[in-house]
Amino acid sequence: MGLGVAVYTVLLFRKSFCGRLLCTLIEPKTNAKSANQSDSRTVSDQTFHIPIRGITMIRLKTLLGAAIFSAVAFTGANACSISAWSAVDSLGVVAADSGEAPAFPRYSGQRYSARCGLRVVGGGTAKYVQDNTPTNATSYKARFYVFTGTTLADTTTNGFVYLARDGAGANLIRIALTGGNLITTVTGSAGAIAPIPVVADKFYSVEIEWAQGAASPFSIKVQGAGAPTAVTQTTTTNNAAGVLKDVRLGLSAGSTGTVFFDEYDSRRTTAPGRLLKCDANNDGLVAIGDRVVINNEILNLSLATGQPDANEDGIVSVADRVQVNNKILNNPASLCN
Ligand SMILES: [Ca+2]
Ligand SMILES: [Ca+2]
C-alpha cells in the first residue's frame, strides 16, 4: 500500500518476466514518498509492476487481485484478492476472477488485463474500495478501467463510480456513470464539465489529472469500446488549498447494476497512460505471440496475462484476434493501433 518509492534508474521489469511473487520480494519497503511515486496500484492481478522509462521506479500495487502466484501461475490454483486496498466498505465489492482452466466458466468476472478484476454490485449502501495513499497529495494523475455493465449503473443523485476526497472527507472529484454518460464534477471548477458518452457492456479507460492551485488545469480523458481516439474534457479549478487524501472506486448508495474495475494506477507527477491494447502476452509489443495467447484463451486453455480485448467488449474472441492480425499486417484500421 502506499509506499513510497525512492527514485531509481531502472530497467523495466515487465510483469511477464518478473513473477508476481518475485516482484513482491524485490519491492523496496520504504515509506518515504518521493515526488513521483505511484500512490497506488492497479486493480488487477499483477502484484507489482515497475514501469521503466525514466528515472523512477514506480510501485503499482495491485489493488485487486493480488494473487499469490507461483512461477507456474495460471494453473487454476491461484486466487484474486482486494486485500491490497486501504479499505473496503460493505458487501458487494469482491475480487472477480475471470476464470482459469479447468475451473471454468470463463468470465465469471470482467477483467481488462490478466485474470482478476474488481466487481461491485449495486443496491443498498455504498460499496467501494478506498486507497489512502495519495495522503494529501497536491498533484495527482490516475488511470483506471471500468466495465460499464448492462445498466450503466448509477442513477442516484450525487452518485459515483469514482471519488477523490480531501482530508475532511469532502469530494474533490466525483465521476458518476449515469444516463449513458460519465459525468464529472470537480470542486472549484470554473465551469461544468461536459458529459462523456459511454455505452453498456464495454471497457473504458479513464485518465484524470488534477492539481492544487488557484487556477489549476484539470482533465479527464476517456477511451474505450474499441474507439480509436479518446474524448477529453478539461476545466480550470480554483482550489489553492486543496489536498487529495483518498480515492474510492465503487458504487454509491442506492445505485443499480454491476460494474467492474481494473488496473487502477495513480501517481504524483507522471501520467500512467493507457495499457498497450492487444498486447495479450504482456511483453510490450503486439506481435504473433499475442495471436497465440488469444487463441489459447478462445480455446479455454489459459487466460491472457496482458490485454487481449482489442474491441473492449469484455469478451476475448476471434474478433480480437483479427485486430491483432491487422496490426501485424500494418493495417492502419486495426483496433490495436
Ligand atoms: Ca505482445
Ligand atoms: Ca473482445
Span from first to last CA?
Answer: 33 Å
The dominant shape is globular
**Overall pLDDT level:** 78
Largest sheet: 7 strands, antiparallel
Helix content: under 10%
- List ligands, each type once: calcium ion
Count of discrete alpha- or pi-helical segments spanning 4 or more residues: 3
Give me the CATH fold name of the largest domain: Jelly Rolls
Protein architecture, described:
There is one protein chain. With 337 residues, the chain is mostly beta strands. Helices cover 9% and strands 28% of the residues. It contains three helices and 14 strands. It has helices at 20-26, 288-298, 318-328, and strands spanning 87-89, 93-97, 116-121, 127-131, 139-147, 162-165, 171-178, 181-186, 196-197, 203-211, 213-224, 231-239, 246-251, 258-267. The strands form two sheets. The chain has a seven-stranded antiparallel sheet with strand order 1-4-13-6-7-8-9, with no helix packed on it. Strands 2-3-14-5-10-11-12 form a seven-stranded antiparallel sheet, with no helix packed on it. The longest helix has 11 residues, at 288-298. The protein is globular, with a radius of gyration of 19 Å. Mean pLDDT is 78; it is low at 1-77.
